[in-house]
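Write out the 3D structure for:
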Amino acid sequence: MQKQVNQKAWFLVLPVFLLVAFSAIIPLMTVVNYSVQDSFGNNEFYWVGAEWFVEILNSERFHSALGRQLLFSGLVLAIEVPLGIFIALRMPKKGWAASVCLVLMALPLLIPWNVVGTIWQIFAREDIGLLGHTLAALGVNYNYTQDAFAAWITVIAMDVWHWTSLVVLLCYAGLSSIPDAFYQAAKIDGASRWAVFRFIQLPKMKRVLLIAVLLRFMDSFMIYTEPFVVTGGGPGNATTFLSIDLVKMAIGQFDLGPAAAFSLVYFLIVLLVSWVFYTVVTAQDAEINK
């Protein structure tokens, strides 16, 4: 006797599909539609095919913004990942001190992005900011509104302050999952502190580190609010990252076609990197489960 299959359960997930279609798929299709057309006003559109994509990919403006974005993401990852590991290793594992440290680490993550930008905009000002005024009193020429290097230092320091806690918490979770028997065996064998980190702690943190690097890369690669509030993309175009350049093109210049093509290229870059990280994580899981 053939077993009957009840497909009524699909009705339970239908609202979710409709919500996803409304909030993600339909806007994405709208962007795709704009990316292959040009508008001359009066809601009249003209087919241009891949013209905007070719223009964006050959644009020096896009290449410069992409270079700045990759440099920024690389710098913050190079700072935040080692710093996060270092702090997680130094945090207490038990008692009230561990709870206090976890709360302190979580506090920066609870602050909205625009508030973080405002905090650092005031903090780094030469006239009223604690950092800027102190550096000026010490004779250091620090003006993030006029000096590109100072602007980069400010934006990177702000991102490190805001997001290193995420790496710390993930690494701390990986360290907390290590059984005490591992440390006891290492102590019996006379293993050095470096050997314990290399052969016990680092392998146990490898998976959470990959997640941390993925999350931090995606967030840093799509950063907009914090640098926009602090520097507005300046001085000049020194801190004009891809997201800021995209907003300038779409809203400031109202070039909807090129901006749509820009956003799709931007989206595909993030998607490609995420797929690479997912492939690495999946391969590691398969190796562990062998």
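Strands lie at 37-39, 45-47.
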